[in-house]
Design goal:
Blueprint: H1 2-27, E1 32-48, E2 51-66, H2 85-114, E3 116-118, H3 132-136, E4 143-147, E5 150-151, H4 155-162, E6 168-174, E7 177-183, E8 186-188, E9 193-195, H5 214-218, E10 225-229, E11 232-233, H6 237-245, E12 252-258, E13 261-267, E14 270-274, E15 277-281, E16 289-291, H7 295-321, H8 333-346, H9 348-366, H10 374-387, H11 393-422
Antiparallel strand pairs: 1-2, 3-16, 4-5, 4-6, 6-7, 8-9, 10-11, 10-12, 12-13, 14-15
Helix pairs in contact: 1-2, 1-8, 2-7, 2-9, 2-10, 7-9, 8-9
Amino acid sequence: MTILVAIIVFGLLIIVHEFGHFIIAKFKGCRVLAFSIGFGPKLIKKRFGETEFSLSLIPFGGYVKLFGENEEDREKKDSFFMKPYSTKVLVIIGGALFNFIFAWCLYTIFYTFIGTKSIKTNLIAPPPENSPAQKAGIKEGDRIISCNGKEFESWEKFLAQIQKGEKLKISIERQKDTLLFEITPFFDEKKGIYETGLYPLIPPVAGEIVKNSPAFNAGIMEGDTFLSINGEKIIKWDDMVSIVETLAGKKVVLEVKRENKIINIEAVPEIHKIENKEVGKLGIYPPFKVEKHSFFGSMLLALLKIWDIIYRTFLVIGGLFIRKYPLSSLGGPILIGKMIGESARIGLDALISFVAFISTELAIINLLPIPALDGGQLTIFTIEKVIRRRLSKSVQMIIQAIGFGIIIAIAIFVTFLDIKRIFIK
């Protein structure tokens, strides 16, 4: 199921991207000879007018072939390479533009009909042992007042601040005292994120129940308060998670308070493999507060979300060069496919959000000035515009060869990381 969903999602994103190139090329009067989803041998093909549409064997990619790409046609009147610079730029960025538009539409739907989830508390859960927060002296039940001089608004924004990897000055309320702590996040290579050991203290109340999960099948309902598991008392959400994770595949008895009644429910935590370790999951979300937005408000939030992804992506790219982030934090198609499957299993909301994120990342990556990517071709056209002449065939071949070499090297490297991360113990 995971493989099927991943192939469908990858295929959809490729169609959106290539359609962007296609429709803008047609709009600007360029001749389109081929539109292919996938590479390699053609499984299905059909000609409409001068364009051959095809579905090829290897699904991870696609292309739009324009008249003039063959060397013998490059100097002809209708050649794409003889078009004005503005036309070439629009056609080249068309794929990324449509990926951005697609992500914008998905995020707009998400914010309008699904809404944003937030945890309305500034209480801190017990910091893990030897974490920066624990070493600094922060304790369970402390309240975050501000971070780097800015008032605490939500855990989502606070955790985003942590991902900058910069030193944090956190103002804490403990009983009637206000204390100031300095914490430097560390990069967790296994999770691929910066950590401090600061997490919200969440009550043990069931939020959304994942459909067809052990909790769903056992009859647990949203709003149920967990009192104990196998007789072990539950005080906070993390207590429940830590107990359930150790009982993968084993029957548990949950003591639950529902309205004014106390009932016992039996369930078997599902086995999940995380970091080569089997952990139990019931399929219950914490008690998030859901806020839906107006359509026009959602359109604005979607734009801000995409801008935030772009900003953070370039922060990470820059961080890779200055070794702020290790190369082991990168992920490839195998990991993305796995995450698509997990998102689909969680629910439509998680899948929509993740597909929008991947569509945005696909647009960003394609616009990077690397030969063999759209951004590389755009760079070549810009250089030719500045020097007012075409680059020689030999120079272009060298540039393309270097580009393909870079792409293949990156693909092999991230695939190796994926295999090591997911399959190798």
